[in-house]
Each structure stands twice: as structure tokens, then as C-alpha cells.
Design brief:
With 191 residues, the chain is of the alpha/beta class. Helix content is 44%, strand content 20%.
Length: 191
């Protein structure tokens, strides 16, 4: 970020804010606006990294026609295990967590996960869009995000939950997401 007291014209990809020589409240507001823009750019870049590196095509399923939450979890965990992303006991841990309390939410999605980061070898989020709503605990679910996050990548969970809150809080966005038919459309809808 460049702070300047003189008008500066340049072609650099650097946020530039002009302030007065005698720093005033309006200058403070301008600096904070610039910092907010930089935060938004950083958040967008982190989010794109997150999406492209954790929500992988090999773990994406559209129009899944399975009707039991345990079978959905089992299928999703098996894919992660077959590719070496999780350890053998990962699925057992996810199912055990699910028996404690279903991970479904009112808005029509579920976030099954293992309580232990130690069962995850490589971070990934397995994603399933169900063909028909499935009764999952107290709620009907059509969107499932199985989290397999290592200890080193747990900082991405804040980005994940911010994104998820944004999606499910906007019925139009969520409906568009549920209609995608392939991974590329899914990523395009997210980004």
C-alpha cells in the first residue's frame, strides 16, 4: 500500500491512497477503506486457494442417489481412503461423531467430520449434491460437505464457515449451487 500526500499516477498493482499532509479524520477513514479493500482481496485469494486445493474434482459428486446418511458418509469416506487422503479409521470416526449428534442443519446441508485431525493425511472436502433430499437427523439434506482437514490446515475452517454461511444465508445462491451438474460448474458458481 502506498500512502502519499501528493497525487501519484502509476500503473503498479498497488493500492494507493492520497492523504493530507496534516493527517485528519477523513484521512484515517481513507486509510481504513484501503485496508478493507486489501482484506477483501486477501480473503478472495485465500478463498480461491481454498476452493481449488481442498474441494477437489475426484471428491465431488452431483446427483448422488443414495438415501441413507450412513451410506452417503461411507461412500464419501471410501473415496478419500482409496486416494490416500485419510487413514483406515477415518470413516469409523465420522460415523461415531454422527451418532453423537447428526451434523445436519435447518438449511438443508450436512457437514460430517471426524473429531480427530490425526486420521487425516491430506486435507480435502468431499462434496455431494444429492438427487433427492434425504432425512438426516431432524432435517432434510441435499448438500453434504465431508470435512477431512489436517491439523496444519485447520486455519482454513474459518474461511470455509464464512463461505458456507454466505451460501446458505442466500437462498438464491444455495439453489443455484444445488442445480450444478459437474465439478467445473460447481467451482464457477462458487467463484
Amino acid at each position: 500500500m502506498i500512502l502519499t500526500t501528493q497525487p501519484v499516477a502509476h500503473a503498479l498493482d498497488i493500492e494507493t491512497t492520497e492523504i493530507s499532509m496534516f493527517f485528519a479524520h477523513t484521512d484515517e477513514a481513507a486509510v481504513f477503506q484501503t485496508l478493507n479493500r486489501l482484506d477483501q482481496i486477501r480473503y478472495r485469494n485465500n478463498f480461491q486457494f481454498f476452493i481449488l486445493n481442498l474441494i477437489r474434482e475426484e471428491f465431488f459428486t452431483a446427483n448422488m442417489a443414495v438415501e441413507e446418511p450412513e451410506k452417503i458418509i461411507s461412500d464419501m469416506c471410501d473415496k478419500l481412503y482409496a486416494r490416500g487422503y485419510v487413514k483406515e479409521n477415518f470413516k469409523e470416526g465420522v460415523l461415531k461423531r454422527e451418532r453423537l449428534s447428526p451434523t445436519s442443519f435447518f438449511h438443508g446441508f450436512a457437514i460430517p467430520h471426524n473429531m480427530s485431525h490425526q486420521e487425516t493425511i491430506h486435507s480435502a472436502i468431499s462434496t455431494a449434491i444429492l438427487k433427492q433430499p434425504v432425512q438426516w437427523g431432524s432435517y432434510e439434506v441435499r448438500f453434504v460437505l465431508l470435512l477431512a482437514i489436517t491439523e496444519e490446515n485447520r486455519n482454513f475452517l474459518k474461511i470455509f464457515f464464512d463461505w458456507l454461511d454466505d451460501i446458505v444465508s442466500n437462498p438464491e445462491k444455495f439453489a443455484r449451487l444445488l442445480e450444478v451438474q459437474d465439478y467445473q460448474s460447481f467451482v464457477n458458481t462458487l467463484l
